[in-house]
Amino acid sequence: xxxxxxxxxxxxxxxxxxxxxxxxxxxxxxxxxxxxxxxxxxxxxxxxxxxxxxxxxxxxxxxxxxxxxxxxxxxxxxxxxxxxxxxxxxxxxxxxxxxxxxxxxxxxxxxxxxxxxxxxxxxxxxxxxxxxxxxxxxxxxxxxxxxxxxxxxxxxxxxxxxxxxxxxxxxxxxxxxxxxxxxxxxxxxxxxxxxxxxxxxxxxxxxxxxxxxxxxxxxxxxxxxxxxxxxxxxxxxxxxxxxxxxxxxxxxxxxxxxxxxxxxxxxxxxxxxxxxxxxxxxxxxxxxxxxxxxxxxxxxxxxxxxxxxxxxxxxxxxxxxxxxxxxxxxxxxxxxxxxxxxxxxxxxxxxxxxxxxxxxxxxxxxxxxxxxxxxxxxxxxxxxxxxxxxxxxxxxxxxxxxxxxxxxxxxxxxxxxxxxxxxxxxxxxxxxxxxxxxxxxxxxxxxxxxxxxxxxxxxxxxxxxxxxxxxxxxxxxxxxxxxxxxxxxxxxxxxxxxxxxxxxxxxxxxxxxxxxxxxxxxxxxxxxxxxxxxxxxxxxxxxxxxxxxxxxxxxxxxxxxxxxxxxxxxxxxxxxxxxxxxxxxxxxxxxxxxxxxxxxxxxxxxxxxxxxxxxxxxxxxxxxxxxxxxxxxxxxxxxxxxxxxxxxxxxxxxxxxxxxxxxxxxxxxxxxxxxxxxxxxxxxxxxxxxxxxxxxxxx
Length: 699
Hints:
Layout: H1 3-6, H2 9-15, H3 25-32, E1 40-41, H4 52-64, H5 75-94, E2 102-107, H6 110-120, E3 134-138, H7 143-146, H8 149-152, E4 158-162, H9 166-169, H10 178-181, E5 185-191, H11 205-210, E6 223-229, E7 248-252, H12 254-257, E8 264-269, H13 270-273, E9 286-290, E10 295-298, H14 302-306, H15 313-330, H16 333-353, E11 354-355, E12 363-365, E13 380-385, H17 395-404, E14 407-408, E15 410-412, H18 417-424, H19 428-436, E16 447-448, E17 451-452, E18 455-459, H20 466-480, E19 486-487, H21 489-496, E20 511-514, E21 517-520, H22 529-541, E22 551-553, E23 562-564, E24 569-570, E25 573-574, E26 580-584, E27 604-606, E28 611-614, E29 622-625, E30 638-643, E31 646-652, H23 655-665, E32 669-674, E33 680-684, E34 689-693
Parallel strand pairs: 1-14, 3-4, 3-5, 5-6
Antiparallel strand pairs: 2-8, 7-8, 9-10, 11-19, 12-13, 13-18, 15-18, 16-17, 20-21, 22-23, 24-25, 26-32, 27-28, 28-29, 30-31, 31-32, 33-34
Helix pairs in contact: 4-15, 5-15, 16-20, 16-21
């Protein structure tokens, strides 16, 4: 079947029969999400987008009501207190429980909620008899969960990482009566949904672990508590805590609504609330205390006891409008799950079936299943792209190309080293070697010795549309597929009917060597003779002599090139090359990733007049001095900016240039240049050394 036809809405409806929320989704996105028009936003697992009506209703609310400190008993304080309590109830209602079953403790985010549990859990250090608390977590956990061991190790608590397959494979009946004798508290943490692959772990693990039917609880007597990390899960899926009564559930609201940020919550089951202990007590958390004596009585209500100081009450009020907007636009979280899973399933089927002209697969997918059901898989795809010879294409290259197409994805290991190691087959020894080679979390070193250090993640949100899938698939086909674009029809049909058999990962197949190059085989068609001849020709041509035919300089970072035939050299390269850059109103550097119209600006360096000319279609040409006049140069013009993480000291080029750029780009911005008195120290991580440069080029 033709790839273009596969990228049609008709094909989508053959794969999944749920789309939208009963009305015209395009009209809804036009009304509620005007700011992302033209943007293909596929990073909802990091944060989703907020609708305009949420912000509008929220600002109308805080504009017409007087909200005071909820600790005050005056009318404005009581209004705030009552509104905050209403939001607590709505949070519990969303998870199908009541205030009699759970308490809501507001925090600054999911990570803060996890830290609260870590600091308050009644850990017991290991004794000579071996009786001590265990901190256990699934290896497919977020950094913020694994980081709890930083606290527990200092308290003499044993840490036990658990591989996902061990939970049920090692399950056995626990000895009866042991819990009566041993009341040591243990904590098991696992994600409701992997933020790496979107895999949904069984919610039945909650009761199974509490009842000590599953590993590791079945092998260790004591009282087992379960922390269910729901941050990734609740963004697009319902969670019924009546069915899986976990003891602790941390969440972040920006993953659900997009706004507010910096606000999360810890839901605590009533059976676990009484065992939490805290040392520090802040304002509002005490029933009574004495300043002259060591006397303190905590507040009876658990929310009051653990919310130190005044909560972020205006942000909490915004959550109320978040629930309103979500229900108004979608009709509820169950509809969101059906819609987002359909988009993810369709994209997975097409991407995993896409092939190069020689029949080799384009993508190596990192998933446990085949996207059969929204009960086992969330709206997340994780993968790496491969070239026509089976070599992994580094995720940084994919990310840079996606940015040029205004497609927003996430790359790296996503703060989940355990899943990254498992799917990419990276040993702990190799992880250490990667660090020695200069690779650290969050950088752009995507390949070490040809092996990937991370991957690409695409995730959908409730306002995502079929066009988002379409644009992404067209982008992959256009930029990374050796033509002609082909499709593995057999795989496509199996996946469409939901009968795809589990496959071995591509990296499990034998490695073949050709012309000194290593690539993985996967049982699909071998490279044809024509493609191999093309590879040989390209390699032989790479040794031919080269002639310099054109010289281009880029005076302003990310703007158009200026072609010259001969040009003077400066201390570190071509004179005036990338000496200027455009920044927004917050002095943040603008690149074509953020503002594509920069490429339509054509600067020219006119040496005879000592001027930099700014030109663009429909705009009058203006001139900016090439050199900084020391007599007019004042400290007010000096500002600090960053280029690729390096701090640079720059000088503003004046209001005329700022006005010209702002008019053309349609946003407040200014032209700045590197200060002549400043030397940029660019640290190169791989070598671990600093290089002194005086230009604004990328690191």
